[in-house]
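Bug report (template v2)

What were you trying to do?
Predict the complex of my protein with oxa(dethia)-CoA.

What happened?
Run completed; filing so the output is reviewed.

Input:
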Amino acid sequence: MAIEIIATGKMVPPQRISNQDMAEKVDTDDEWIRSHTGIEARHIASADVAVSDLAVEAAWNTLKMAIDRAEVGEKSPEELAETLDLVVLGTTTQDFYGCPSTSCLIQNRLGAKKAAAMDVTVACSGFIYGLETAAALLSSDRRRGRALVIGAETLSRITDWDDRSTCVLFGDGAGAVLLEKRDGEGSIVPSEGGVPKRRGLVRTILGADGSGWEYLVIRRGGSRNPWKTGETVEKNPHVEMNGRAVYNFAVKVITETIARLMEEESLTIDDIARIVPHQANARIVQAAGKRLGIPEEKFFLNIAEYANTSSASIPIALDELNRSGKLRRGDLVITVGFGGGLTYGGNLIVW
Ligand code: UT7
């Protein structure tokens, strides 16, 4: 049995806000943002768009790809949606607070009538955790065969637009992959001069360090600190961040996770075609690459255009690589990320 990624998709809202645009809102400038983060722009959802709207578009684009590339026998995305067994959504910005889960809204709009649906709330690690959750459920249940794993965010709704140290960092978007459980050995792809490879998810590392919970936190609105009747709300619920602490954590866990994934499968960096990191800060990725002696070109970065889209950043990047033909069947791909919680993780995938 193999759990294979058979299609990808994304949806990024059209409204593009450049660093120059940000400099008109807060005391910042293009040079600071670029040099400290690698970000040049971010895309922001319009006021009438919720996270499920972005997620549903990314999901349809994924299902369309599976049809177009003849990965499945179904004739239309709608027909394919009906075969889904599971919808897993990584997000921190659900449509509704707590209930219902946003994945249920997505399941309903896709017409995925027989699918179970669940949200995974681990901040920016949402896609990595979501992929492993879906793969584990597919593996453990003989009846389950297909899952959509989505990472989607409207971070613009939980951003303090007066805080220059955070508001320049975030953007909105959604990305998705379609997973299929294939029997037997799954799809075997020949590799150059090596052992044939089985496509699919090979190994995942997941971790957490809750001692850092305060480094990325939305303080108001939860059971610890609920809104009170009659209270005047001065600011929308927003992320507060200790940037330096998150930065140090990120460099450490990214370095360790990449090294462990390779070590546990007896791989060297030459075996890896691409590393797709969470797009939070280009400097974090460069620092981790330097520690590991990995050339910068191994890492795929699109942070310049989209900024940090939290759990959407990895599936958006995977879709861009996949559609542009930069990933070939049989390529070994590592995803790696970190986020609030604090959480972290990585997946090793044969594409
Ligand atoms: O998905 C996970 C989410 N979060 C992260 O991944 C964030 C991880 N952390 C980081 O990426 C970096 O720590 C930041 C990009 C957030 C900050 O970069 P830094 O090099 O750690 O800057 P800093 O916080 O040490 O601030 C340096 C200076 C400060 O001024 P002073 O005190 O030295 O005068 C800040 O006030 O930069 C100032 N500053 C800015 N200046 C212009 C902070 N934000 C801005 C800004 N524009 N937007």
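What did the reviewer find?
The two ends are 15 Å apart (CA to CA). Residues 32 and 148 are 38 Å apart (CA to CA).
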